[in-house]
UniProtKB/TrEMBL annotation:
Protein name as catalogued: AsnC family transcriptional regulator
Keyword terms: DNA-binding, Transcription, Transcription regulation
Annotated HTH asnC-type domain residues: 1-81
Stored SMART domains: HTH_ASNC (SM00344)
Organism name: Paenibacillus flagellatus
InterPro entries for the chain: AsnC-type_HTH_dom, Dimeric_a/b-barrel, HTH-Siroheme_Decarb, Tscrpt_reg_AsnC-like, Tscrpt_reg_AsnC/Lrp_C, WH-like_DNA-bd_sf, WH_DNA-bd_sf
SUPFAM superfamilies named among the record's database cross-references: Dimeric alpha+beta barrel, Winged helix' DNA-binding domain
Gene3D superfamilies: 3.30.70.920, Winged helix-like DNA-binding domain superfamily/Winged helix DNA-binding domain (1.10.10.10)
UniProt-recorded Gene Ontology molecular function terms: sequence-specific DNA binding
Length: 163
């Protein structure tokens, strides 16, 4: 990948609302070069989606997010891919990652409440033949996501006391 495309990606990842004109100005190149680079990266599925990072704790929308560690037995000939596909096709699944370490897949899901998440694990995930075990972790609070800090830093004005 050429240097221009990498720079365009960095600027768009930082703020997807940046126009090709603004990106071109920031990089000191022609607008047509930036437009061409963006179109090529969209066609090659390098740029897959333009998204907004939302601090859901500030919205009156009760959602429960869980990270599920999944141990699986890989399928002959397809390895982990076939099982990962069976899992990521469920609409409540937001992300699936192949991991190194104590478990094989990390699955991120969203539900309306704890019961909905538990139901997904017990009725859809655990019954898959290749799934050996699951361990569910509920996200209680997000401090930072995609490089964005959600909470305002509060300065500690207490006096330092030394012995």
């Amino acid at each position: 990948m050429d240097e221009l495309k990498l720079k365009v990606l960095e600027l768009l990842k930082e703020d997807a609302r940046r126009t090709p004109e603004l990106v071109a100005t920031m990089l000191g190149v022609e607008v047509d070069e930036v437009r061409r680079a963006i179109k090529e990266m969209e066609a090659d599925h390098i740029i897959v989606k333009y998204a907004t990072v939302v601090n859901w704790s500030k919205v009156d929308d009760e959602k429960v997010t869980a990270l599920i560690e999944v141990q699986i037995t890989p399928e002959r000939g397809r390895g982990f891919d076939a099982i990962a596909e069976r899992i990521y096709l469920h609409p409540e699944v937001k992300s699936v990652y192949l991991m190194s370490g104590a478990y094989d897949l990390l699955v991120e899901i969203e539900g309306k409440n704890l019961k909905e998440v538990a139901s997904f694990v017990s009725s859809k995930l655990s019954p898959i033949e290749s799934v050996l075990s699951t361990k569910t972790h509920f996200i209680l609070k997000k401090y930072k996501q995609d490089g964005i800090i959600f909470e305002d830093h509060v300065e500690d004005y207490r006096m330092h006391i030394s012995p």
